[in-house]
Design a protein that fits this description.
The complex is a heterodimer of chains A (298) and B (322).
Chain A (H helix, E strand, L loop, with lengths): L16 H9 L4 H21 L1 H11 L13 H9 L2 H32 L3 H15 L2 H15 L5 H25 L3 H9 L4 H9 L4 H17 L2 H6 L8 H11 L4 H22 L6 H9 L1
Chain B lengths: L5 H7 L16 H41 L15 H8 L1 H33 L5 H7 L2 H4 L2 H12 L5 H8 L11 H29 L3 H9 L4 H12 L1 H16 L3 H7 L10 H10 L4 H31 L1
Helix pairs in contact in B: 2-15, 3-15, 4-9, 4-12, 7-13, 9-12, 9-13, 12-15, 14-15
The chains are: A mainly alpha (298), B mainly alpha (322).
Chain lengths: 298, 322
């Protein structure tokens, strides 16, 4: 499982490449061409069916409400939704929490992933097992005790509180992702810097981390998706309307106004734009395949 | 730039992790040992924040949950020690076993449904298709879009008798189905929703595994007259077996612990038909305010998952040493 490639730009590295190139030069037979269009039709049909719910959200958000006089497509659902609800506050809350989660979880997971990648002691493999076990536990188990702890610390109904929980819940996967990337950086680079008198920490920062932008981005995307999309933690820890993040805010609005589809869908569109944008811009860096190798490798 | 993980290839070459590929710095014995001491110390500080966070946010609550599970308290009051009463009352209740049953069904369908769809699409996208790259990105959307959004969309599509799907059934002269009101249909719908949400993850995992399979193996096989199906069962499946196994394990964990997919679509209803263990625990604690039994359910899940995941982790490690 060397790579996850869903980037159109990057060809698969290594073994598969040479035969693929050869095939390109060979003239395509008529049967091969027909097969290719059949597969195209098949994947087009599947993609169309898969995207129906998402397409419905977009279309409904742009259709005018039944009572409205406007015809055709309109943005009035969006302006209406922002007037009727605290959506702008929720959006700001979601952005703050998500960005904080991304920054802190990369800052904590990168050094830990480095140790996981380079360390050889029993303690390191013990830590790896601990991460796997923690990852497999239902978050509901920790949510109730944390609720009581956070209530005493004033962290319930507080954005800092859920940020801490998000960072902790990204930890296992984020560490594996970073470790998987560091594995691909040759140790000889660090050795060279050690000989030049660089400390271990210095070489981690200046040599390893500086060359790990794709790994860092991949981890950041993962943390972004987790924090932005979370519902369970937010519904437990956030109590008041003006502290809600978007998922909780939109869901509470949906429960009270189940027939106001236009506003609900407009808010849904607002909520899905950032993750789609991040993914569209950065998806070539995103890799989950590394997780498997990272688990198995040490 | 691609994310290359050397774990698997290293294992295949038979080199132990951190072994031959990674010689210790050889700059004289004195310097090496000095560096070694510095290395351990630096490693300690590098990993410390992560360990502290895990202990505080995962370790401490686990211990506390153990205490809560043996008390009859509430969210604000610690309550009295009641021993294993919470566990025995939970284990004796019919609702708990119904939740166990649904969790099993949901997990089995979730894991193998999303795997089959994901692998199928990964295989299809591996061949040359016009605009293949675009499809790869579009097909990831169900996994990228927030669950709150997709559950809202699914609700609109299937929930009420005048939803588009219900109308479609009526148009074909079929009985109007009550997707979320009929217990069996609701369970089917929730499982389908889970497959829809999860298949992109399996597609990414499968695509990653497939890139490491050498194309020439297929060419050789087809020269020997192997059919497509024989190539699939004889080459694709065995060569990606280990990664498939890992993706099953991860997806099992995701499914067992899944809350929003079920809760946002049906809230666990109708008549508890789609109540999984996590939903059951959540409702016990936050709707019935029975903290003890609720945490007891979560704790039983935790113990089971710790045992199972430790065993599976060993298994993964063992298979990579072979």
């Amino acid at each position: 499982m060397s790579t996850v490639l869903h980037s159109p730009a990057a060809p698969p590295a290594g073994a598969g490449q040479a035969p693929a190139k050869e095939r390109k030069r060979r003239p395509v037979s008529e049967a091969g061409l027909r097969g290719r269009w059949w597969r195209f039709a098949l994947i087009l049909a599947v993609t169309a069916v898969v995207l129906v719910p998402i397409g419905a959200v977009v279309v409904l958000s742009l259709l005018p409400a039944q009572a409205s006089t406007t015809t055709g497509l309109t943005l009035e659902n969006f302006t209406g939704a922002f007037e009727k609800t605290l959506a702008s506050t929720w959006l700001a809350n979601s952005l703050v929490v998500t960005l904080a989660t991304v920054v802190v979880s990369v800052a904590v997971a990168a050094p830990a992933g480095y140790v996981l990648s380079r360390g050889k002691s029993r303690a390191v493999s013990g830590y790896s097992l601990l991460l796997f076990v923690m990852q497999s536990l239902p978050i509901i188990t920790s949510v109730v005790p944390l609720f009581i702890l956070f209530a005493n610390l004033g962290l319930v109904d507080n954005l800092l509180g859920i940020t801490i929980v998000y960072v902790a819940s990204t930890m296992a996967v984020a560490t594996w992702m970073m470790a998987a990337y560091f594995d691909s950086i040759p140790v000889s680079l660090e050795e060279a810097s050690w000989i030049d008198g660089c400390s271990v920490f210095g070489s981690f920062l200046k040599v390893v981390l500086r060359n790990s932008l794709p790994g860092v981005l991949s981890t950041a995307i993962f943390a972004f998706l987790l924090a932005w999309n979370d519902y369970l933690v937010a519904i437990v820890f956030l109590r008041s309307n003006e502290i809600f993040t978007l998922p909780v805010g939109v869901q509470s609005f949906f429960q009270q106004n189940a027939t106001d589809w236009g506003s609900v869908m407009a808010l849904a569109v607002v909520m899905m734009i950032p993750p789609i944008f991040v993914f569209a811009a950065l998806n070539k860096y995103f890799s989950v395949g590394g997780i498997g190798g990272s688990l198995a490798g040490r | 730039m691609t994310t290359v993980n050397s774990g698997l290839s290293r294992a295949r070459r038979g080199i132990a992790p951190g072994g031959a590929g990674r010689p210790a710095p050889q700059a004289g014995v004195n310097r090496a040992s000095k560096l070694h001491g510095q290395t351990s110390r630096t490693y300690f500080w590098l990993i410390l924040p992560s360990v502290l966070l895990l202990l505080l946010i995962n370790g401490y609550p686990l211990v506390y949950a153990g205490i809560q599970a043996t008390h009859d308290g509430s969210l604000i009051d610690a309550g009295n020690f009641v021993g294993v009463d919470n566990f025995s009352s939970v284990l004796a209740s019919e609702a708990f076993w119904k939740a166990v049953q649904f969790t099993l069904v949901f997990t089995l369908v979730g894991v193998f449904g999303s795997w089959a769809v994901g692998l199928g699409l990964a295989l299809l996208l591996r061949t040359r298709i016009p605009a293949g790259g675009l499809f790869k990105v579009l097909l990831l959307l169900p996994w990228v879009v927030p669950i709150v959004v997709s559950s809202t969309a699914w609700n609109w599509l299937v929930a009420s008798p005048d939803s588009p799907t219900a109308k479609l059934f009526t148009a074909f002269g079929l009985e109007t189905p009550l997707f979320l009101a009929d217990p069996t249909l609701a369970a089917v719908t929730v499982c389908l929703f889970k497959v829809w949400v999860s298949f992109p993850f399996m597609m990414m995992m499968s695509a990653g595994a497939l890139t490491s399979v050498d194309n020439t193996v297929y060419e050789a096989a087809s020269m020997d007259g192997a059919t497509r199906w024989q190539q699939f069962t004889g080459i694709t499946l065995p060569l990606t077996a280990r990664s498939t196994y890992i993706s099953w394990i991860l997806m099992t964990i995701f499914c067992v612990n899944d809350f929003p997919t079920i809760y946002l679509l049906t809230g666990g209803g109708p008549v508890d038909a789609t109540t999984s263990l996590v939903v059951y625990a959540y409702r016990k604690v936050f709707q019935d305010f029975q903290t003890g039994p609720g945490v007891a359910v979560a704790f039983l899940m935790t113990i089971t998952l710790v045992i199972v995941s430790t065993a599976l982790y060993r298994q993964i490690r063992k298979s990579s040493v072979e």
